[in-house]
Design a protein that fits this description.
By secondary structure, this protein is α+β, with helices and mostly antiparallel strands. It has four domains: about 150 residues, PAS domain (Beta-Lactamase, 2-Layer Sandwich), CATH 3.30.450.20; about 160 residues, Alpha-Beta Plaits, CATH 3.30.70.270; about 230 residues, EAL domain (TIM Barrel); about 130 residues, Beta Barrel (Thrombin, subunit H).
């Protein structure tokens, strides 16, 4: 078949005899009509052979592509016509290869056609399969229309509807569509998908102090940092304002996710240069994973939101995984907030004092004031629970001023050589009038300014550093001492140390805990911090020291002071005065000889699987390497069991020690930190194969296998080896 149409002379066609009949003389030749159609730009024509190779392309089409006949004829049609970009007008259409294989008709099929000039054209194809009289497929015959201008416009409109204009990231609409599509597809293939929700800490402060253009520039830089960290592992998008989202298909390893979240927190927390000025912000991250935490987009998004809220409540600048307990967190937090306000009104919050001791002489040099709250209904409530609640409104201002006044008053009754350290929240620090509040507390108590230390975390450096520097200068003029608390765990930057505001650096307990374990890099970090502090003329405090080997290490590494249970737990003012009344300013170390893996005390009902029996037990404490349980008798040392921590977390364990009704378990695989002071398994048993009742399974269909069903199916198959005791624990 010829490449172009062979057209007779137009004059001869027009010279046909005129007449009234409808015979051939009155009908233009078909090739002439088709040629006119082409020249008018109405359409182009193409054909394939039975092997789906291009066998004909009209002359106008060749000219449009700048191609020669020999370069295209005989080429598979799918190599000439490519499927269009899915963001364009062809979104949702079947691929060309699929339709050709099925011998389907082509209706308005949008394709991309690379031209010999290096550009790409977009055509809309129509075509039908040609079948001969014997029913044999002969190829396709079809037409094409160039829609490049229309396609470019529609693609631009589609892109604008799915891309955040400021950052160039996917916007809320596209993220929602992508998440729904991924989860729907992954339900069928039983795959996982993680979702991270982020918002920026103190972004509003940058907007307020540096202006909205600076805020926009900051968001652009945040988007670039996020994209450079996530890369091809997922899709980053901006939901609006200072909220971002990351989709991570085929990722459910919580260790890997925690490491990624930590890298995001650390990267976002590094300083930004904006129009010649320097600003520091932070971020908090909430993480949820399908199908464990949800199988629908709305469900998973809500779970990630709850985890984000928990991360911000914890202290900000951290990450948190979703757990089912977070579902009730909002209502519990609201109730606790109401009780906290009542407690402040009734002056129920008290101060306790923990000594900071010289490790060479065992003499106390300072006491840190710590808030304590005993509620009549809930008992002792940890500051880790009520301080974040107070931080969310101006209640922290009232609590902070109360603590400052009381600490100054109490310290005046101590020996003149003993200082008092008071924690200052970031919200309290940047509030106008903070310097005056400090001055008033000193004046009212009569405490010399040099005996007061203000402990400030790195979070105060979030936002406009010029304002922060001005506050520091005002405080130094008062004569108070400044300590940088939790150094290295927040929005770390050495830049804010060079101004010389600080008198003391406190080495966070996360660097002290486990520092004596083989291969731990924390001793090197401690050495570096001490050396840095000495070079800058600052004092160092090692926090959280509990074991004798830790004390020896931090002493050898040069820490000036030590704080922790190794010397004393926090003491009430009456106890402090009693000690000084005996002319005793020493605190002698007392603690275990070696560090034990960090453990948390828990009273929670969990499960224990042995052979085909499921037992109910009480989890008493939990560490990365093991746990202690109650509720069973007759369990021999060395017994292999599986501890069910809930939510698909099954831990292969061995009984390391046992008493009459208590067992110590050693885990085969260590747990990892959950980012909020707890522990979790790196992986979970997929609910598609083995799920715990309560995990959302409605959309999973066949194949869901709740643990509760397994438990009933295997109940009493054999005689149980252990004796199930009656369980009793708070809240059970």
């Amino acid at each position: 078949m010829a490449l172009g149409f062979r057209r007779p002379a137009r004059d001869s066609a027009r010279a046909a005899p005129e007449g009234n009949g409808a015979g051939p003389a009155n009908r233009p030749e078909r090739s002439v009509v088709l040629g006119d159609v082409e020249e008018l730009g109405i359409g182009m024509f193409w054909a394939t052979d039975a092997e789906d190779r291009l066998s004909f392309l009209s002359q106008r089409a060749l000219a449009d592509l700048g191609a020669e006949r020999d370069t295209l004829i005989g080429t598979p049609l799918t190599r000439v016509f490519l499927d269009a970009d899915e963001e364009g007008t062809a979104s949702g259409q079947r691929s060309l290869a699929f339709k050709l294989k099925a011998r389907s008709k082509l209706d308005e099929q949008v394709v991309a056609v690379p031209s010999a000039r290096g550009s790409t054209r977009w055509w809309r194809l129509n075509g039908r399969a040609l079948i001969d009289a014997k029913g044999k497929f002969q190829g396709y015959r079809g037409s094409a229309v160039d829609i490049s201008a229309q396609y470019a416009y529609e693609t631009q409109v589609a892109r604008q509807s799915q891309v955040d204009e400021l950052t160039g990231l996917a916007n809320r609409r596209k993220l929602g569509e992508r998440l729904s599509a991924i989860l729907a597809a992954f339900r069928a293939t039983k795959r996982s998908c993680a979702l991270m929700m982020l918002d920026l800490d103190r972004f509003k402060q940058v907007n307020d102090t540096m202006g909205h253009p600076a805020g926009d520039e900051l968001l652009k830089q945040v988007a670039q940092r996020l994209s450079s960290i996530v890369k091809d592992a997922g899709e980053v998008g901006r939901l609006g304002g200072d909220e971002f989202q990351v989709l991570l298909p085929d990722m459910d390893d919580r260790g890997t996710l925690g490491e990624l979240a930590n890298r995001i927190v650390q990267s976002i927390s590094q300083p930004y240069q904006i129009n010649g000025r320097r600003a520091i912000i932070g971020t908090s991250v909430g993480i949820a994973i399908a199908p464990y935490d949800g199988v629908e987009a709305e469900e998973l998004t809500r779970a990630a939101d709850m985890a984000l809220y928990s991360a911000k409540e914890t202290r900000g600048g951290t990450f948190c995984f979703f757990t089912s307990e977070l579902r009730d967190a909002a209502s519990k937090t609201a109730m606790l907030g109401d009780r906290l306000r009542d407690a402040v009104d009734k002056d129920e919050l008290k101060l306790a004092y923990q000594p900071l001791v010289d490790p060479e002489t065992n003499e106390v040099k300072c006491f840190e004031a710590l808030l304590r709250w005993h509620d009549e209904e809930a008992g002792d409530i940890s500051p880790a629970h009520f301080i974040p609640i107070a931080e969310n409104d101006d209640l922290i201002i009232r609590i902070g001023e109360m603590a400052l006044k009381q600490a100054c008053t109490d310290a005046l009754a101590w020996p003149e050589t003993i200082r008092v350290a008071v924690n200052v929240s970031a919200k309290q620090f940047v509030r106008p009038g903070f310097r005056k509040a400090v001055a008033n507390a000193l004046h009212a108590s009569g405490l010399p300014a040099g005996r007061l230390e203000l402990e400030i975390t790195e979070s105060v450096f979030v936002g406009d550093l010029e304002t922060v520097d001005a506050i520091f200068r005002d405080l130094k003029k008062l004569g108070v001492r400044l300590a940088l608390d939790d150094f290295g765990t927040g929005y770390s930057s050495l830049g804010y140390l060079k101004h010389g505001h600080f008198d003391k650096i406190k080495i966070d307990q996360s660097f002290v805990r486990g520092c004596t374990e083989n291969g731990d890099i924390n001793p090197a970090i401690i050495t570096a911090i001490v050396a840095l502090a000495k070079a800058l003329g600052m004092e160092t405090v090692a926090e959280g020291v509990e074991a004798m080997d830790e004390l020896q290490l931090v002493r050898e590494r040069g820490a000036d002071l030590v704080q922790g249970y190794i010397f004393s737990r926090p003491m009430l003012q009456e106890q402090v005065l009693e000690k000084f009344a005996e002319h005793d300013a020493e605190f002698r170390p007392s603690g275990p000889p070696r560090h034990r893996s960090e453990r948390i005390t828990i009273f929670r009902k969990v499960g224990l699987i042995h052979e085909d029996h499921y037992y109910d037990v009480i989890l008493r404490n939990l560490s990365k390497t093991g746990a202690r349980i109650n509720g069973l008798a007759g369990v021999p040392v060395g017994t292999e069991v599986v501890l069910d921590l809930g939510h698909g977390q099954l831990v292969v364990s061995k009984v390391a020690n046992a008493s009459e009704n208590s067992q110590g378990l050693q885990f085969e695989t260590h747990l990892i930190s959950d980012g909020s002071g707890g522990f979790m398994t790196r992986h979970r048993i997929s609910p598609y194969s083995l799920a715990e009742a309560g995990i959302p399974l409605a959309a999973l269909g066949a194949g869901a296998f709740p643990l509760a069903a397994w438990r009933e199916a295997n109940k009493n198959k054999t005689v149980p080896k252990f004796v199930q005791l009656e369980l009793s624990a708070p809240g059970l």
